[in-house]
Design a protein that fits this description.
Strand order of the largest sheet: 4-5-6-3-7
Shape: globular
Strand content: 5-15%
Distance between the termini: 26 Å
Helix content: 40-55%
């Protein structure tokens, strides 16, 4: 289809010689040609300055003594209406024409600027100064007429045609009809129109003393015009910065106030007071260590404290960023997007860093693919050093660093964060929580002693911890005992509260899990409480997790098996398959998507009795997740989970997921989204179309099948599945990866096949040859994005 040629003709120019032709012309090539006495401006600011500083006089023209205010206002209204229509059409293209967004942004900015100017002209035409518009009246009216006609021409060109309208109704994206040079030409013409109006309104000494007050009120002073130019320039720079900042990967769920953590507890009033004060003292001490490391064993309440600390600092406007790691939850289970996420949050909490971080991305075009050290240096450390800000102190909160899946990344992150000690203008403090595991211990051991301060959570005196846990039980269980079915006498009584506190043994996760178990609507609170208080002598172990293990065992035996001895084995098998998959999955998903992944009609019945250990939203589109990693640790450890019916074999769980993923990949086919448009760019495909044909369970299978294969216990039959996949489904899988923008991970999986599977070089070479051949022949619809 031939591209429409843009020709905005008849643009009115301000002439400096009497009798000169005021119509701009073009040369034979269609380019703008300026009269000899007009100098083309090199920038908007320079042109606005020159239009006001030059004492340009308009030629005298035979006109009536007074401008008809109604006629002038009517012309302005007509131009404003058609300009608004052009703006509306441009806005429709904005969401679809991603490649043309900078041009659309600039065109919209100039249209809006002219609309503001039209409103000022309308006020002038209706105001007391209308009588003084003698020499300029004709030029203003003619310019408005030209603008109205040219906006109508532009509207006609931009209006989506019949074919585009039909494609839009089927979910196709609109295609921007203008080229970059066309937009530049239009903007030049609009700019000259704007200058003509501004200069015309300044002619004939319009701003006499009796009219200066009115002109001040209508913002037609020189300062207002210059402000308009500066505003447009700043708007353009802001848009350019935003374009680069939007490229920063921002890990879903990393922030302390993300929807994922909305229902997680914070410290109750009156609890953890000494510790919270200690953390605040560390932050406010100008000579304090750069890092505060709060460590403690599982269940001691580290994440609850992290959330509370983050909210406290946010309320004081001292929170720079936060990252809450969580194993098995996509991008927050690893460090690949750690520093890019911190940088993205810094641009929101500290706007002065935006131009510096944007410039760093622009100058280091592949920074998002570089290592953690380079990202820390260019995206965070250097911008903080260069920031033109007054002295301030901010904090970054990092929770559950031990749940990052790479031990090397953990130690590197600690090493890099310690470099924040050198910052002077904007001082950065880091609050970190984790279990005292070996990678963390080694990481801190390698830091200078003055770089960090540590606090061992489980070394707090038991009396203090027990007091806080008793407060928790009283306040939380008060909501349960207020239910109408319970008696009005205090429930549970104080001895029972103390018995629960003793069983908790200093573990807040024990208290939180017991509370969720007691309030379960499936049983009465009294019955649930009796299960917890029942004596159990089956676990003689004196390990630190003994009380926690006993609690999980009781809860699961009661909830999963219950009194159904006849179906006990069936229920246990189903529990291991469903819950085993949930605790080893690489990302969280909704219950209905997990069921599809496991090829089960539903998993709701199994999950219904597990609300004390799993977060199961009422909305089926929300993901299912475990409340605390200690539950996963318990189920996977045969030394802790002594009931074989509940014990999860991680290798078996992984290989089960691998086989289910392979079954889903076998159903893929060419042209997955039924586009029937080979060569289309992924960016031109509406997101809802991709999600319709590649829902969450298929997306998961494409992304993680190889991970589960690596961690499983494959048989020869599983090896055969891999070979069949390479022969029959490989290309369809690559097309799916392209559509979900995961091709780079697909390449890593292919490389992993050579190492893990030890597939013969000939087989891998054959796959690569097929891949190259198909790309060369152009048989894939996703080839443009591969």
């Amino acid at each position: 289809m031939r591209r429409p040629h843009i020709s905005l003709v008849g643009t009115t120019l301000l002439c400096t010689h009497a009798g000169s032709d005021s119509i701009q012309s073009r040369d034979d090539a269609g380019s703008l040609r300026y009269p000899p006495h007009i100098t083309q401006p090199d920038s908007l600011d320079n042109y606005l300055n020159s239009s006001l500083t030059q004492q340009t006089r308009l030629p005298s023209v035979p006109t009536p003594d007074i401008m008809d205010p109604l006629s002038g206002a009517a012309s302005v209204i007509a131009v404003v209406q058609v300009a608004g229509q052009v703006w509306s059409i441009c806005s429709k293209y904005y969401a679809d024409a991603k490649d043309a967004k900078p041009e659309i942004d600039r065109l919209i900015a100039y249209v809006l600027a002219l609309q503001n100017l039209f409103q000022q002209v309308e006020g002038l035409a209706k105001g007391p100064g209308a009588a003084k518009l003698v020499a300029s009246r004709e030029i203003i009216e003619r310019t408005l007429s030209e603008l109205e006609r040219e906006f109508k021409m532009l509207q006609k060109i931009l209006e989506p045609g019949k074919r585009q309208g039909i494609l839009k109704s089927f979910g196709k994206r609109l295609k921007w009809p203008l080229q970059k040079e066309d937009v530049e030409r239009i903007i030049q013409l609009l700019e000259r129109h704007k200058t003509t109006l501004i200069t015309a309104m300044n002619c004939d000494q319009m701003y006499e003393l009796d009219y200066s007050l009115y002109m001040y009120k209508t913002n037609l002073t020189r300062a207002a015009v210059l402000h308009l130019g500066n505003h447009l320039e700043e708007s353009y720079q802001t848009q350019e910065q935003q374009k680069y900042l939007l490229r920063l990967p921002d890990a879903e769920g990393a922030a302390y106030n993300h929807r994922l953590w909305e229902h997680e507890d914070r410290c109750l009033p009156g609890t953890r007071l000494d510790l919270r004060q200690k953390i605040m003292d560390w932050f406010e001490d100008p000579d304090g260590e750069c890092i505060f490391w709060l460590n403690g064993m599982a269940g001691t309440g580290k994440s609850t404290i992290s959330r509370t600390v983050a909210w406290d600092f946010a309320e004081k406007q001292r929170l720079a960023a936060s990252f809450f790691f969580s194993r098995g939850r996509g991008d927050i289970s690893h460090a690949s997007q750690f520093f890019t996420t911190i940088a993205a949050q810094l641009t929101r909490s500290l706007p002065v860093l935006r131009p510096l971080i944007s410039k760093a991305i622009e100058e280091n075009f592949d920074i998002l693919k570089q290592g953690l050290s380079e990202q820390w240096k260019h995206l965070i450390l250097d911008p903080l050093k260069k920031a033109p800000a007054r002295f301030m102190q901010l904090v970054v909160v990092i929770d559950a660093l031990d749940e990052c899946d790479s031990k090397d990344d953990i130690q590197l992150i600690l090493k890099l964060l310690a470099q924040a000690k050198c910052l002077e203008t904007i001082r950065l403090r880091v609050f970190v929580t984790s279990r005292p595991e070996t990678p963390i211990l080694l990481g801190f051991h390698n830091l200078p002693g003055e770089a960090y301060q540590d606090f061992v959570l489980h070394n707090i005196p038991p009396r203090t911890v027990n007091q806080d846990i008793s407060i928790f039980f009283r306040r939380k269980l008060s909501s349960v005992k207020s239910k109408p079915k319970l008696s009005t006498t205090p429930w549970p009584d104080e001895p029972t509260i103390q018995q629960l506190v003793e069983k908790a043994a200093g573990l807040f996760i024990y208290a939180a899990t017991i509370y969720r178990f007691i309030r379960d609507d499936k049983y009465t609170p009294e019955e649930q409480l009796s299960v917890i208080l029942k004596e159990d002598h089956e676990s003689p172990s004196q390990s630190p997790t003994k009380h926690l293990d006993d609690m999980y065992t009781k809860l699961l035996q009661h909830s999963v098996v219950g009194h159904q001895a006849v179906h006990m084995d069936h229920l246990a098998v189903r529990f291991r398959k469903i819950v085993g998959s949930i605790i080893v999955m690489c990302d969280i998903m909704a219950a209905k998507e997990i069921a599809k992944l496991l090829h089960l009609p539903t998993i709701s019945t199994t999950l219904a009795s597990l609300h004390s250990v799993l977060s199961i939203p009422e909305n089926e589109d929300q993901p299912v997740r475990i409340f605390h990693p200690s539950f996963r640790d318990f189920l996977l450890d045969p030394q802790r989970c002594l009931d074989s019916r509940l014990l999860i074999d991680p290798k078996e769980a992984h290989i089960t997921l691998f086989r289910n993923c392979m079954a889903l990949l076998a159903d893929l086919q060419q042209d997955l989204c039924n586009l029937r448009e080979p060569g289309i760019s992924v960016g031109d495909i509406p997101e809802h179309i991709i999600q319709r044909y590649i829902p969450a369970h298929i997306h998961y299978a494409c992304r993680y099948w190889f991970h589960h294969f690596q961690l499983g216990n494959p048989t020869q039959e599983d090896m055969d599945r891999i070979l069949r996949f390479l022969e029959q489904d490989f290309l369809h899988w690559l097309e799916a990866l392209s559509l979900i923008r995961e091709v780079s991970n697909g390449i890593l999986m292919i490389k992993g096949l050579e190492v893990t599977l030890r597939v013969s070089w000939a087989t891998i070479y054959l796959v690569k040859e097929v891949l190259l051949n198909e790309i060369t022949r152009g048989n894939w619809g996703f080839v443009k994005d591969f």
